[in-house]
Every structure is written in structure tokens, then in C-alpha cells.
TrEMBL record:
Protein name: 3(Or 17)beta-hydroxysteroid dehydrogenase
Cited SUPFAM superfamilies: NAD(P)-binding Rossmann-fold domains (SSF51735)
GO MF, one annotated term: oxidoreductase activity, acting on the CH-OH group of donors, NAD or NADP as acceptor
One Pfam family named in its UniProt record: adh_short_C2
Organism (species): Parasphingorhabdus marina DSM 22363
Keywords assigned by UniProt, alphabetized: Oxidoreductase
Keyword Plastid assigned: no
Homology family: Belongs to the short-chain dehydrogenases/reductases (SDR) family.
InterPro entries found in the cross-reference section: NAD(P)-bd_dom_sf, Sc_DH/Rdtase_CS, SDR_fam
Superkingdom of this protein's organism: Bacteria
Keyword check for Oxidoreductase: yes
Highest classification ranks of the organism: Bacteria, Pseudomonadati, Pseudomonadota, Alphaproteobacteria, Sphingomonadales
Length: 254
């Protein structure tokens, strides 16, 4: 028996990296998944690899109409979702001195506006569910400690952190069966982190074993926590922020 048997999930940015790992982990625990990504081919590839439990859609998370279509299509193909993972994101290297207004707005549109639209659509759809539901918002360690080379990324993720708590509290106040939590990974071995703009180098991270301080995490390190937060095992956990960072936050300053 899977930990997510009978659950229906939407995972944004599911065509690669963390979204792919989360979608695969959910399927492995019995969930049915709508995999969305701005790259339709990538989303479809992940869904094909999962099999009959998964469907795929192209989605630009900035589009309000697009969010309505995703929830409508999910309801038609699978049923009303119990789980939303707001994972889609991007990173643009720029400090406070050289970040353009267009770069800042684009980053916040994808990772803050997109999360807002997803949360709003999810609450409206899930509030009448008879079963517990979960919204999981992908924030970052940058929201907890700042990240000067990626100003707009840190700003957007900081907004996700506080918005998550407001969504969670609203759902509790309204007695909706919805929990909302944020995850805060540090460097995870994904294509986004490996891109030249970010500059992560070195050997690929193994899926098992200890990771040295400063090493990259494996996507499964985040996906495993996403399974727990999506399951009814975490029924007493909402408005929380969960670092996945191998001690990065507590390294002594030299």
C-alpha cells in the first residue's frame, strides 16, 4: 500500500529536476499526477516514463487562464486534486547593482505571482474535498539567509515563504481541509543548479550515502520530504518552513 494511494497531485515544473523527482516519487507511492511544465515535451516525457498514473500539460505559471485550464483538465482526467506542488522556477544571476527591473519582474512573475495563482486555484478547488489536502510551495535557503548574487531569486522566494504562512492560516481559519507548507532547499543537483549561470561543478551527487558539508543534495532528498508533506502522516503540520540544506544555515562564519 502506497503512502499516497488515492491522492491526485499537480506538480509544476515537472519536466526536469526537482519536479521530475517529485512526480516520480509521488507515483511510486500510489498517487496519480498531472505533470506540468512550460516545456510540453519535457512534461510529456516524464509522464510517459511514469505510465498510466500520469498525464502532462504545457503550463506557463504566469498565466491566470492557464491555471484554470490545468485544474479543469486535472479534474476531467483524474478528479479534484488533493496535492499541489508549486515548483516551477528560474534563476537569473544579478546583484542589487546590476539587476534590471525587467529581470526582477520576470523572476517574481514566475516564482511569486505563479505561486499565488496556484495557491488561489488550489484553495478554491480543494476546500470542498472530504479528504485532507496539501499545498507545497518550493522556496529556498535564499529566503532564510539572502543570496546576493541572485537578488530577484531571493526576493521571490522570500515572498513565497511568507505567503505560504498566510495561505495556511486562512485555510485553518476557514476550517478548510488544506495544509500549506514551504520547502527551503540549498544547492540540489538539478539542471538549473548545474547551468553555467549558477556555476555548480563536480561529480554527480549519489542518491544514497552521506553528503559532505557544502556538497549538492540529490533531488530525492527533496522529493522524499514532499511525499511526507503530501501524505496524511503530516496532518498536524501547516504554515511550516522546512530547510533541506545539509547544515548550510548553521556553518560558522569565518
Amino acid at each position: 500500500m502506497g503512502r499516497l494511494d488515492g491522492k491526485i497531485a499537480i506538480v509544476t515544473g515537472g519536466g526536469s529536476g526537482l519536479g521530475k523527482a517529485i512526480s516520480e516519487a509521488y507515483a511510486g507511492e500510489g498517487a496519480r499526477i498531472m505533470v506540468t511544465d512550460i516545456n510540453a515535451d519535457s512534461a510529456q516525457s516524464v509522464a510517459n516514463a511514469i505510465g498510466d498514473q500520469a498525464f502532462a500539460m504545457a503550463q506557463d505559471v504566469v498565466s491566470e487562464e492557464g491555471w484554470a485550464q490545468v485544474f479543469a483538465e486535472t479534474a476531467e482526467q483524474l478528479g479534484t486534486p488533493h496535492i499541489l506542488v508549486n515548483n516551477a522556477g528560474l534563476v537569473i544571476p544579478a546583484t542589487i547593482e546590476d539587476c534590471t527591473l525587467d529581470q526582477f519582474r520576470h523572476t517574481c512573475a514566475v516564482m511569486l505571482d505563479g505561486v499565488f495563482l496556484g495557491c488561489r486555484e488550489a484553495v478554491r478547488a480543494m476546500k470542498s474535498q472530504d479528504e485532507p489536502c496539501s499545498i507545497i510551495n518550493m522556496s529556498s535557503m535564499a529566503a532564510l539567509q539572502g543570496y546576493s548574487p541572485f537578488l530577484s531569486y531571493a526576493a521571490a522566494k522570500g515572498g513565497v515563504r511568507s505567503m505560504t504562512k498566510s495561505v495556511a492560516l486562512h485555510c485553518k481559519e476557514q476550517n478548510y481541509p488544506i495544509r500549506c507548507n514551504s520547502l527551503h532547499p540549498s544547492g540540489i543537483d538539478t539542471p538549473m543548479v548545474r547551468q553555467e549561470a549558477v556555476g555548480a561543478e563536480g561529480d554527480a551527487t549519489p542518491e544514497t550515502g552521506m553528503i559532505p558539508l557544502g556538497g549538492l543534495g540529490h533531488p530525492s532528498d527533496v522529493a522524499s520530504l514532499c511525499v511526507y508533506l503530501a501524505s496524511d502522516e503530516s496532518r498536524f503540520m501547516t504554515a511550516g518552513e522546512y530547510p533541506v540544506e545539509n547544515g548550510t544555515l548553521h556553518q560558522p562564519q569565518m
